[in-house]
Amino acid sequence: MKTRLFYLFLPIVAFNFSCDDEEKPKSVPIVVTSSSTDVTPTTAIVSGSITSTGNSTVIETGFVYSSNVSQPTTADNVLKSMSVSENFSVTLQGLTSATTYHVRAYAINDVGTGYGEVIDIITENAAPMVTELSIEGSLEINSTVTAKYKYTDSENDPEGTSLFQWYAANDANGVGETAIAGATSKTLIIEDEQIGKFLRFSVTPMAATGTTAGNETKSEYSTAVGAENVTFNYNGVSVTYGIIISNTTQRKWLDRNLGATRSAQTLDDYQAYGHYFQWGRLADGHQIVTRTGPADANVTVGSGTTTTKSTDVVPPDSKFIIDSEFGSAGDWLVTQDDNLWQGVEGINNPCPTGWRIPTKDEWDAEAITSLADGFDKLKLTYTGYRSVEDGGIYTSSTQSYYWTSTVSESGGNKYSFQVRFSDAFYNSMTNRANGIACRCIKD
After folding, report:
1. Pfam families attached here (predicted)?
2. 138: which of 100, 121, 297, 379 is 20 to 30 A away, CA to CA?
3. Segment (H or E) for 52
4. What is the pLDDT of residues 191-242, one digit of tens each?
5. Do 416 and 403 touch, CB atoms closer than 8 A?
6. What SS3 class is residue 169?
7. End-to-end CA distance of the chain
């Protein structure tokens, strides 16, 4: 009996285990340190990029750097980038000048940290600096003053031949500042043209090696150059005044009114108002007042008044002579005398030797447009005046009056010119017995 063979044909089914059904292997990100730009002594911009995320989301990028670790990691200096993206950059700050830094980019995912290759950055050499600038020496004519300062350099490069320039200005705010011609050394010999000026200097530090030139740095202004201070006897007391040289005329003026205790600090600096002279009189005490403030009420007059006019150009006492009726044009003399105060040899000249009361034309030549302008140019202040009528003090807080030596005649009576400042400049004739401030000019 034959055995029959039976074949069972079943369909063949293939099971394809596709790779998409399996997770891709993860790894740390692959990072490139791209470049460095804009390197300064203390900063540098560095850039990097991610070429592979390692099949995982990158959660942080940035840079690691060190000046002494050749392969820096996040255990060293780290600066994160502001956002996570394929390309990223940061600005390294607070670096030390003239130093080599080892820098590389990094990126972090949930597997770990990937680093780019290390690049070296050499920060620039820092420029030298100067601080603590000051002027040493006496601020007087023919004196030598010296620029003092502290030189520093981050890399300890020694000082080379630093550059200097001296400047002169009209006040401590730098108005009218000009460079003094030829004044380019560390020292300055003060000359006539600097009298009354405010000085300062600049230094451009120069290193002998490395980055040679720093930035020009200027000092603060000095106080006013006091010139050849003028010491003289005023009303029986030895006083010392400074000198101002006019920028307009180059004439020398005393730096304050006769009787003032100091050169004016402000327009209403009552300590600089000075005393009130009757025209043509000596500083015999009649002019003296005492002030405790800038107002009329803040004044105490000196030795009193009299209505008895003097028969001599040197009155018998120091009283202020008044004339309530304006007789003889309000003079303190019985017989008027036009020769008083005329030049340095003029009778009763109250100024120091070689100085005198200025003429009307000399006041005009200064081209002073207002009291504020007068303060800027000659340290003029409010003064007010003392009246010929009653000896009282008026307009102390609003106007300024100064005598000239110029005389005039009107209606048969003789007057003298005054200059008056408020919002403008005025020349006018006035009674010679009025008490008005005096400012002296060098002959």
Report:
1. IG_AIR9
2. 379
3. strand 44-52
4. 878 877 899 999 999 999 887 899 999 999 998 886 567 889 998 999 989 8
5. yes
6. strand
7. 165
